[in-house]
Design brief:
Blueprint: E1 12-16, H1 24-32, E2 42-46, E3 49-53, E4 58-62, E5 65-69, H2 84-107, H3 119-130, H4 134-152, H5 160-173, H6 179-208
Antiparallel strand pairs: 1-2, 2-3, 4-5
Helix pairs in contact: 2-4, 3-4
């Protein structure tokens, strides 16, 4: 039989499985992280009231296969002077969250080495983004900038995050780590980063062919 969506026209999505989406892209990202066996509970603002739609998805037949869908058309509000800064901040936080989630996926083994990209892969991504227009290129540049910033804050030697760890150790033990030891640790960390960059670049070049 036909299953009708529980959403109504004009509903404003405020939460998905307890998480408040910052942007439309964030909503789609949160949606993609939900496992097929888990329910999708969405809170919407309807006529000034908060309404929880439990297990909002349903199965339907699409191109001969069963798929899970929400049965909605997502419409993003127009960008205005009033919401310009909130959208800019929301997108920046979403990009940072996306980078952090990718790092956690890498640590937990959800993604592998083949999913990493270096300068060559970034160049390919920029080339592809150009075919979609200037906004896509600018969004990619913003993502790359935030990506570098978040990675630089990781608690790894040779990065600013690693320097913060040394400062934290100094604060706790009331004396700095010996310069020789810090130098050796930073050298090892830097060497590992260079080796990783070489391997990723070689992988990207190999994929070109």
């Amino acid at each position: 039989g036909i299953v009708y969506s529980q959403f109504q026209e004009g509903d404003r999505i405020t939460k998905i499985n307890g998480h408040r989406p910052l942007t439309a892209s964030d909503f789609q990202f949160q949606l993609s992280r939900i496992r097929s066996e888990d329910s999708i509970d969405i809170t919407v603002e309807r006529d000034g009231k908060s309404v929880l739609i439990e297990n909002a998805s349903y199965q339907t037949n699409r191109d001969g296969s069963e798929v899970r869908t929400l049965g909605i058309n997502l419409q993003v509000e127009d960008l205005t002077v009033q919401n310009f800064f909130s959208n800019a901040i929301g997108n920046s936080v979403f990009y940072a969250k996306l980078v952090w989630s990718s790092i956690m996926d890498l640590v937990q083994g959800r993604v592998g080495f083949q999913d990493l990209s270096g300068p060559v892969g970034v160049g390919q991504a920029v080339s592809e983004a150009q075919s979609y227009g200037v906004l896509s290129v600018l969004s990619l540049f913003a993502f790359i900038t935030i990506n570098v910033g978040v990675l630089n804050l990781m608690p790894f030697t040779a990065l600013d995050g690693g320097k913060f760890i040394f400062l934290l150790i100094e604060l706790i033990f009331r004396k700095p780590v010996k310069k020789e030891i810090e130098g050796y640790i930073n050298f090892i960390g830097f060497a590992l980063l260079i080796i990783l960059m070489v391997l990723i670049t070689a992988k990207d070049i190999f994929n070109l062919f």
